[in-house]
Amino acid sequence: MATENETAPASHQPYVPDNVTMPEFTWSAVLLGTSLGLIFAASSLYLVLKVGMTVSASIPVAVLAITLFRALSAAFGFRRATILENNIVQTSGSAGESIAFGVGVTMPALLMLGFDMDLPRVMIVSILGGILGILAMIPLRRAFIVKMHGRPGQAGTLLYPEGVAAAQVLISGEKGGTTGATVFVGFGLAFAHKFLTIGVNALKETVAAPIHVINRAAVFSADMASELLGVGYIIGMRTSAIMMGGATLGYLVIIPTLFFVGEHAAVVIPPSSEKLIRDMSIGEIRNNYLLFIGAGCVATAGLISMARTLPMIVRSATSGIRSVRGGGGGGGVVNRLDNDMPMSVVVLGSLALLVVLTAFLMTEVGIVSAVLGGLLVLLFGFLFVTVSSRLTGEIGSSSNPISGMTTATLMVTCLIFLGLSMVTPHDRVLALSVAAVVCIAASNGGTTAQSLKTGFLVGGTPKAMQWAILFGALVSALVIGGTLLAFNAAGTVYSDEPEYLPLEVLPANQPPTSKSDLDSLTKKEKYQGKDYLVMPKSQGNLKVIYLVEPKTGKIAWVKKPIVLTLEERQRLVDKETYQEREYQILDTRREFFTVKKNDRPELVKVPEGTAPEGRFLVDSATGQVVFIKDPTIGGVINEHNGTKTTRFPAPKTKIMQIIIDGVLTLKLNWSLVLIGAMIAVTLELCGVSSLAFAVGLYVPIQYSVPIFVGGILRWGIDAYQARQSAAGIQAAGDDPEARARAEIEAIRKSETSPGVLLASGYIAGGSLAGVAVAFLEFMPSLKNAINLENVIEPLGEVANEIIAVVMFALLVIFAAIVGLGMLFKPPEENGDATAPPPGQPDTRIEA
Fold first, then answer.
1. Of 146, 216, 532, 606, which is least surrounded by CB within 10 A?
2. What per-residue confidence (pLDDT) applies to 249?
3. Residue 697 near residue 680 (C-beta atoms within 8 A)
């Protein structure tokens, strides 16, 4: 059997040679890595729900591993951790971030499809996806990590940039040159700033400036979010600027244009079915029009990114098959650096996954549909893990288009289901489950490849690393599901406000309102071609809306929540207890589907356009629709009982729901979706990557602004440091190898600089503070006790916005100081990083 040393490039020598043994897979390393992985998983979950993106956790985890092990050694006299133990920490720790991304992108779509996001489903999908990603990557390691190792620019090589950077961090730490103090400081500052902003409400979260020179609908707004500042610094100027371009088009071009046209339109413009554009808020214009344009742009951008990699898909699949064929024969002693999990684990594990997944899906659909779903998972799972692993090697895990692969999987699955007439509500869940497992597998497969590259460079044992990431993935999968559910439950509200409920309009048998009441009414609404004043009132325990004639004060109409007939109530199967009372559930997001045998009969019709689609609680005795249950993720109620609620747009999750509904129901506003698709095509024709632009177009503009600020800051600091690195590159002369080494060293310094570490701390601190504040909803007395909103309110709107901007600017300035090396300058390494120490192997990394 060919060993790794035989197939690897002859010049490669890992930091720890094959014949050296030292502690590696220790429980202290695995537990520390898993714990750090859970922290970054919660951070990633927060980010993916807020802006639809995450950043790689491998480098900050590696830095923290070195720092924490040093601290424990100094404090308690423990032996110093080896470089291979630190490698196990970063390997097991990076699994949490990748699984959190896959779970956050897909599983909340259950809520948007009208189903419960139950814990067993989320956990099983997470576990199966995580395991599949690792199993599929095992036979690809030799092909992608070993055989395709080489220098930048060399044909047929995969560089794995973040894997190389993590290896450099570990080697630097072995020489005494890496410290995690910068990460901890960034974490503390960002956590404090975020908690002051949304925890105690001492600082304004969003600052807005209307641009009336365009029109009333043009508003520039920005979130003072430390975690998004860190994201912008990590992803850099190029991506953040493209994302800001999408936000500018959406909120300063499309929405003002829609308002300009609608301001003079006397009719309702679809897909809105009730309200004129001139009567809409900016949020309502976004939800009715821009959301579908953005969805079309995101979906098309994902498909284009997939189409661009089709040749790579073919090559990757071929390489994977060859690797599997070449890895099964021969005997002899297996070197430590060539010791993978056996292929029997891959084959038997895949079969076990198919059986478990089929059994799980059979709880929702028949055995034929369940087997079909399981086979689609294996097919797309192995295909896209191969693609993800290779793309990670070329462009890095942070730029890996996992959402594009998920979109392609979901689109093909839905088309297959449509052809087989599998269009019931539970078939929707089956399609989502297939896409979710594949998404998590592809995400974890790319992360596994990145970690294996790090181990290849430092001399880690592949089998130990595969077990470490498997352990980290399993623990993360078990915990992330509960975190997601608790996170969503924390901000879920039950509202009886009529504007959120399905309403019927009836003639009002009420006396005219008094002149004083009439004078106090300002809000207007058009009904049957006439303008009325809106007067909210209560009829007993029921809230209603009266439509009042402006001149006479006559109460002409009453809008009240609908009452279901006994026959309609008998069609409702699901029930829920709220405030110690049981209600029936009416979910309007399932009503479009044909009812088939053994399917739940949900055919209750509600007046179109009178309420957002959602889950409503119905009084079992009277049939009265009483409440809407509005979740944290994808919810529409931004204020409840005078308190601002936490809401997350979950942009990429919403795309999953739109694709499923659009394909399986054939009912979607395709005009707006196709307009968004054409925007993505136009950008690609101009040579601009459309995926980042599409995300900026979809999410609220206030999220793109701090990301853009972080990108500008990174651009300025990199430009300053580039002048210093240019001298080293120029000194290398015309020697291609020397120039390549100098260029890689410049990239390493940029990617592992104090500024990047501080930004990682900003991301973790701000995100985890957001998670902590969300959980304060479970402790309303504590939340109210620390609320300082009434204290700062007398200062006035303008003063509070200025204070918020100044505090955010201080975070930016501090990041600039750290990035320029004025604070937290990395300590010098003990040894020459450009030549092997006496008696030691060559530590210079060739990728």
1. 216
2. 96
3. no
Q: Does one domain contain both 346 and 403?
A: yes
H-type alpha helices, 250-401: 255-262, 282-285, 291-308, 310-326, 343-361, 367-395
Res 593: pLDDT? 42
Identify the bridge partners of residue 220 per DSSP, sorted by sequence position: 209
Which of 489, 511, 537 corresponds to the end of one domain? 489
Same domain assignment for residues 388 and 290:
no
Residue 627's beta-bridge partner residues? Answer: 617
What's the pLDDT band for 127 if we cut at 50, 70, 90?
very high
Alpha helix (H) residue ranges in 594-669: 651-664
Answer whether residue 17 is part of any domain: no
Q: Is residue 355 part of a domain?
A: yes
Cα 619 to chain center, whole Å?
Answer: 37
Domain presence at residue 129: yes
Per DSSP, the chain holds a count of helices (H) and strands (E) of 30, 14
Q: Six-digit token pair at 397?
A: 């895990």
Residue range(s) defining the domain that contains residue 396: 4-12+22-178+309-323+340-489
Does this model's pTM top 0.90? My answer is no
Predicted confidence at residue 805, as pLDDT, reads: 95
Among 606, 628, 644, the domain boundary falls at 644
Q: 565 pLDDT exceeds 90?
A: no
Provide the mean pLDDT of the chain. 81
Q: What is the SS3 assignment for 282-293?
A: HHHHHHHHHHHH
**28 with 154, same domain?**
yes
Q: Which of 104, 100, 97, 94 is nearest to 52 (CA)?
A: 104
Would you state the structure tokens that stand for residue 89, as one six-digit string? 């920490």
Question: Does the pLDDT at position 831 exceed 80?
Answer: no
Does 599 score more than 50 pLDDT? no
Do residue 347 and residue 291 come from a single domain? no
Q: List CB contacts of 195: < 8 A, sequence separation 6 or more.
A: 769, 772, 773
Indicate the number of domains in the chain.
3
* Cα–Cα distance for residue pair 841/326, rounded to 1 Å: 29
Average pLDDT value for residue range 200-206: 90
For residue 650, pLDDT beyond 80: yes
pLDDT number for residue 846: 36
Neighbours of 617 (CB within 10 A): 25
Nearest alpha carbon to residue 234 among 55, 400, 395, 443: 55
**Residue 74 burial by CB count (10 A; 0-12/13-18/19+): exposed, middle or buried?**
exposed
- Residue 504 host element (H or E): strand 503-507
DSSP 632: S
Q: Is residue 665 part of a domain?
A: no
What dihedral do alpha carbons 509, 514, 515, 518 form, nearest 10°? -60
440 and 517 in a single domain? The answer is no
Q: How confident is the model at residue 601 (pLDDT cuts 50, 70, 90)?
A: very low
Q: How far is CA 27 from CA 41, 63, 134, 464, 517, in A?
A: 20, 19, 20, 12, 71
> How far is it, in rounded angstroms, from Cα 132 to Cα 363?
21
Residues 6+ apart with CB under 8 A from 1: 327, 329, 330, 331, 332, 334
Report phi then psi at 126, rounded to 5: -65, -45
Of 391-405, 532-546, 568-582, 631-645, the one with minimum mean pLDDT is 391-405
Q: How much is the average pLDDT of 85-112?
A: 90
Euclidean distance between CA atoms 476 and 184, whole angstroms: 22
Structure tokens at 177: 């040159």
**Selection from 770, 831, 838 nearest residue 194 by Cα:** 770
In this structure, the answer to whether residues 168 and 109 fall within a common structural domain is: yes
**Separation between Cα atoms, residue 504 and residue 606, nearest integer Å:** 9
Q: Is residue 197 domain-shared with residue 170, that is, in the same domain? A: no
What is the pLDDT at residue 754? 83
* d(C-alpha 763, C-alpha 187), whole Å: 7
Are 462 and 605 found together in one domain?
A: no
